[in-house]
Structures are given as C-alpha cells and as structure tokens.
UniProtKB/TrEMBL annotation:
Species this protein is from: Bos indicus (Zebu)
Region feature Disordered, mapped onto this chain: 1-24
Organism domain of life: Eukaryota
InterPro entries for this protein: MSANTD2
Record's protein name: Myb/SANT-like DNA-binding domain-containing protein 2 isoform X3
Gene: MSANTD2
Length: 329
C-alpha cells in the first residue's frame, strides 16, 4: 500500500472535495484569491436572503407540513405538473418542532419532479437528507408547498432576482418642475413591472461628537469651534431601502408603453384630483427650490401575454415584500 505524508493527505482530501491544493493556492495571486472569496461570500449571502424570503412567504400563508411517507406522494396527479413554492423540513428525537432544511420556488421544473429529487438518495439533494436520517441526526422529514401560476412565478422572480433601475430626472424647468428621463432598452413586449421610491432620512450628529465638545479648557474651546463647524455640515444619512408602491401588468399595452404613460404624463395637465401612481409621480415632479424629488426606481420582467391574466399578482407580491402596495387598488 502506497504511503502518504500528512501533507499529501491534505492535498488529496482537497482534490477529492474539489478544492485547490496548497500548491495551487500558492500559485493564485492574493488579490484574485481575495476577490474570489468575496464573490463566493456575496453569492452565498444572496442565496440565504432569497431562501429566507421564500420561507417568509410559506409561513405567511400558514401551510401545514406533510410527512414524507413514500414515493407515491409525489406521483399524485395534482403534483405532477404544477409549479409551486415548496419547503423541506425535519424534526429530531429530541425536539418535535419542525424546522426548515430548504425552501425553493419551483418555477421551471414541475413540483413533483423537483420533490422526487430531494427524496432520491441517488441525487445530491436526496443523499444529504437520507444520510441525516440514517445517522439519526433527524427523525422525520416533511414537506409543504403552495401552488403558483406561471405569472406568479415571474412576479416572485421580479422581486427576488431583478435589480432596481434608477430613474433620472432633468433639472427644474419653469421654476419648480422636473421631468423624468426613462432609460433605453425597455422591452416592447408584455410583462410585469414595479415602481418604487427611496427617501433619505436625516438624523442628528452622533452623541460622541457632542460629548467631545463639552471638554473644558483652552484646547476644548478650540475643539468646540472645529467640531461645531463639522457637525453643522455632517448630517448622517440612515441606510435606506427602496419601497415598492405599485405593481403594473402590461397586458394590453407593452412594458415600454405602460412605463411611458406613467412617467411622461405632462405636468401641465396635472390635477389635484389625480390619484394613484400617476398622481404620485406627477406630484413628485413639482419641487421646492433647492429640494430634490424622491428617487424613483423601476424593474420589469417579460411574461407571455396568455399567462398574465392568471393568478393573484398583487397579493403575491404583497406577501413576498411583507407590506401593501400603496397605489394598487
């Protein structure tokens, strides 16, 4: 039998698990290695955030866990060709509470097929579950699911996978009116789109600045003048998030036409009686001197026209984001 040194075993183990060996690591520049680690960490964080969002949706609709018993569970007709949000759970001999192992939106593969992969020991996903049950890490395995339409799947994709696009605006014209400048590349096809806004919230300077300005003595008086000037300029900005306020369905018109109608409405025809998203966007164009309008964002996803009439799209998005859409009826 061939003998290996401790170093050889380390490299052999790294190769088996697909990791680079120590020698290969030494050959990779430190900057590239750092960037790769940061990228992988960012991707893992994003996956974790998406899974937490899916779990939140499943919990918000109060579905019951079903005990996995046999393969026939997933061969049933009502699971064979459905799209769904699903979760895999488990409990232990010590704690009966069911915890999530995994959650996913099955938007491309039918639910029945996807679940079979998680309970098939020949698949990577199923092998993990089988091993934990065999080793008595887990007692029982459960699943739950919420059937969704194709349009609802695209709506959730819009929320979780599509980035916001900021809408630029012109300098004030006619005194206090700005115009929105829509980006190019908006599809001339049907689909879903969302409009959101961001507000910066100002807060007073940090308390430690005030404490330092109270120090007595000559040096303290000099520090007071310096820090007072800094404090008057240094307004700390709270981290903000983009708030969804409207979900649009471009079914009769295209995405480009719908967004053009929202953002290119002539402010001269603005009326205080306007309500809804057009009223909000028009009012945001009228600003006081020295005040910027709210930052507005859009995102969109193409969806085949035949699918857009199915499902409850506004309620689907509201469940995913956790609050009501202000300008949807």
């Amino acid at each position: 039998m061939e003998e290996y040194s401790q170093e050889d075993w380390g490299n052999h183990s790294q190769e088996l698990h697909g990791y680079p060996t120590d020698q290969e690591l030494d050959e990779i520049p430190v900057t590239k290695r750092t960037l790769k680690i940061k990228q992988e960490s960012s991707e893992e964080a994003q996956k974790r955030d998406i899974m937490q969002n899916i779990v939140q949706i499943l919990e918000s609709v109060q579905l019951k866990w079903e005990l996995f018993q046999s393969w026939t569970d997933f061969s049933r007709l009502h699971l064979s060709n459905k799209l769904a949000i699903f979760g895999i759970g488990y409990n232990t001999r010590w704690k009966e509470d069911i915890r999530y192992h995994y959650a996913e939106i099955s938007s491309q593969v039918p639910l029945g097929k996807r679940l079979r992969e998680y309970f098939n020991s020949e698949k990577p996903e199923g092998r993990i579950i089988m091993t934990r049950v065999q080793k008595m890490n887990w007692k029982n395995v459960y699943y739950k699911f919420l059937e969704i339409t194709i349009s609802e799947a695209r709506c959730l994709e819009l929320h979780m996978e599509i980035d916001w696009i900021p809408i630029a605006h012109s300098k004030p014209t006619g005194g206090n009116v700005v115009q929105y400048l829509l980006p190019g590349g908006i599809p001339k096809s049907p689909g879903l789109y969302a409009i959101g806004y961001e507000e910066c919230i100002e807060r007073p300077p940090s308390p430690h600045v005030e404490r330092r300005t109270l120090d007595p003595g000559k040096e303290g008086r000099v520090d007071l003048e310096t820090l007072s000037a800094q404090a008057s300029l240094q307004v700390e900005i709270e981290p903000t998030r983009i708030t969804y306020c409207y979900l649009g369905i471009a079914e009769v018109r295209t995405l480009q036409q719908c967004l053009f109608l929202h953002f290119q409405a002539n402010t001269k025809t603005f009326s205080k009686d306007w309500v809804g998203i057009n009223g909000f966007l028009s009012q945001n164009c009228i600003v006081d001197p020295g005040v910027s309008p709210k930052s507005i964002y859009i995102k969109f996803v193409e969806v085949e026209r035949d699918f857009l009439s199915a499902g409850s799209l506004v309620e689907c998005l509201e469940k995913a984001i956790g609050y009501p859409l202000k300008y949807n009826n």
